[in-house]
Design goal:
Elements (H helix, E strand, L loop, with lengths): L4 H36 L3 H20 L5 H19 L19
Amino acid sequence: MPNKPAAAKYYRASLRRRLGNKPVRTRARTAVRDAIDAIDSADWDDAEQLIPIAVRALDRAAQRRIIHPNNAARHKARLLRRYQAARDPQRRARPRMRPPPPVEVP
């Protein structure tokens, strides 16, 4: 428990913020989970409808700083990469790191 009145006030405010942020975070997690389930079950019609919903939910949470914008970007990239890999398994994935620079010959 807080030892000073100002700390108690800050604690109460943080509880109010947490209660307000929880539905937004939950909505984003649920939307991503639903989209992943649709992708894994190869239900492409559902996946194409649920992916934009998940992206919007992540963007909304990032815009309100409930999750970090880089966290939202990472989840969106992984979700779309998972969809593309499942939809077209023959497609070659782009390498994640850059190739080394060419060696200069003297």
